[in-house]
Amino acid sequence: MTAITEATPPVSHKEARRAVLSSFVGTAIEWYDFFIYGTAAALVIGPQFFPGASTFAGTLAAFATFAVGFIARPIGGVVMGHFGDRIGRKSMLVLSLTMMGAATVGIGLLPNFEAIGVAAPILLVALRFVQGIGVGGEWGGAVLMATEHAPEGKRGLYGAAPQMGVPAGVIMANVVFLAVTQLLSDDAFQTWGWRVPFLMSAVLVGVAMWIRLGVFESPAFAEAKESETIVKMPIVEVLTRNWRTVLLAAGTFIATNGIAYVFMVYVLTYGTKELGYSRATMLTLLIVACPVWMAGMAVSAWKSDVLGRRRVYTWSSIALVIVAAVFFPLIDTASIPVMLLAMIVMAAVLGTTAGPQSALFAELFPAHIRYSGASLGYQIGAILGGGLAPFMATWLFEAFGTSTAVTAYFVVIAVVSLVSILLLPETNTKRREAEAA
Predict the structure, then answer these.
(1) How many Cα atoms sit within 13 Å of 29 on the Cβ side?
(2) Which residue windows are transmembrane per the record (predicted)?
(3) Helices and strands, counts by H and E, the chain
(4) Rounded distance, CA 45 to CA 121, Å?
(5) What share of the chain is helix, strand, coil (3-state, %, to 5)?
(6) Which of 95, 169, 396, 413 is close enough to 31 for a disulfide, judged by CB 3.0 to 4.6 Å?
(7) What is the C-alpha separation between 294 and 382, in angstroms, rounded?
(8) What element of type H or E holds 10?
(9) Which of the 8 DSSP states describes residue 216?
(10) Which of 162, 167, 164, 139 shows the shortest CA–CA distance to 150?
(11) How far is residue 363's CA from residue 356's CA, in Å, rounded to a whole number?
């Protein structure tokens, strides 16, 4: 297992900036679409599509449909990774954005159980599956467009752009939900207001598409195509020659993604149902913490260009183990200042673990299989992390009656991610050469 060493062909600063902007905006909007479902699952999906169940069963069912998107993500990563390595990154990014936007608007227009019966949850799962395929192909392509356009020595910093699009999407999703819940009565929100954030996706996707269509193809892919290193089945080469790298990359992401989704989704349910706070209060706490999350990404990505991906990721993973152990005890104080502190610290640490990830995952694989390899590692980690986390947190709290069980789950997956990064090589070429010297 060796990290890549090839240099990305130089591009103009204007092209690089456009690629970074496209990666950030496109990812933010795709994740806005993905996250509004998570927020809706915590607040309204249960009663709308699974009526008649107990509150616990309805919430569990809603989070189960949330997990469906994660199950679909590796399919999107594999399929779009294959064609992204065969015909180019840009076309797959346009396709992923189109699929995500269409599925999100479809959920906003979908009749509920009362209107069409059992067809409602079936169609909901189908649309959620399409969302998962779309977002499964998005991350790898957006990361590669940013890192493969980056100037020498700035791959980590440029790669932070699509990572920062994730909390930006969270902010947009929760600001919209907060506005809707504050402007409408509870009855109006439950009846039709929850659909507004989904329908707004049509406008946002249009803006992202306009930016994305103006970006040139990745120079690294163009070079691979010109040198005729493109292979017929990139995923086969990934699975036969790079399977260990894929599994370790996935392992590094389990805690970052799993804890982040509990932080973004489950805590909304926990704060309203267990601590007695309003939806607006919990959404506000999350919105305030998200800019800190983005700042953590930017700083750690920049430092990874200087200190190395592995070193920054390792120290961030150690910090995540510590914060994971104290997060829910702080939330359980039910004190707004203490809860806000917990949210901000958790956001900062999650940001530092996510910052170097784009460059790390891109540098683990050569250009001709990079889309497939990076996407597969990311999406496997997403299933084992974020796909299971809200469901597991809900079940653990119900089974044990205490958040201590959720804390133990946090710590275990944080340790798994720490061990995984320790088993990976340094991928920052300059840092590796300096260490050898």
Answers:
(1) 29
(2) 31-50, 56-80, 92-110, 116-136, 157-180, 192-211, 246-268, 280-300, 312-330, 336-355, 376-397, 403-424
(3) 22, 0
(4) 10
(5) 85, 0, 15
(6) 169
(7) 19
(8) none
(9) P
(10) 162
(11) 11
Cα 380 to Cα 32, 97, 124, 127, 416: the distances in Å are 21, 21, 23, 21, 14
Tell me how many degrees the CA angle 420-140-128 measures, rounded to the nearest 5: 100
How does DSSP classify residue 380?
H
- Rg over alpha carbons for the chain, rounded to the nearest Å, is 21
Two structure tokens written together for 175: 């600001």
Task: Please identify which residue in the block is written with the tokens 């009855």.
Answer: 187
91, amino acid identity = S
Q: Are 350 and 260 in contact (CB under 8 A)?
A: yes
Q: How far is CA 429 from the centre of its chain?
A: 26
pLDDT in tens, the chain (437 residues): 444 444 445 566 777 777 888 888 878 887 787 777 777 776 777 777 777 666 676 667 776 776 777 778 788 888 888 888 887 778 888 888 888 889 889 988 989 888 888 888 888 888 888 888 888 888 788 888 888 877 777 888 888 888 888 888 878 887 888 888 888 888 888 888 888 888 988 888 888 888 777 777 767 767 766 665 666 778 888 888 888 999 999 999 999 988 988 887 788 888 888 888 887 888 889 889 989 999 999 999 999 998 989 999 999 999 999 999 999 999 999 999 999 999 999 999 999 999 998 889 888 888 788 888 888 888 888 888 877 787 888 888 888 888 899 999 999 999 999 999 999 988 776 555 555 55
DSSP string, 32-70: HHHHHHHHHHHHTHHHHHSTTS-HHHHHHHHHHHHHHHH
Report whether 208 contacts 67 (CB < 8 A): no
- Of 60, 76, 411, 360, which Cα lies nearest the Cα of 258? 411
Using CA atoms, how far apart are residues 174 and 67, in angstroms rounded to an integer? 19
Q: Which runs of consecutive H residues, i.e. helices, occur in 332-428?
A: 336-354, 357-363, 370-382, 389-400, 404-422
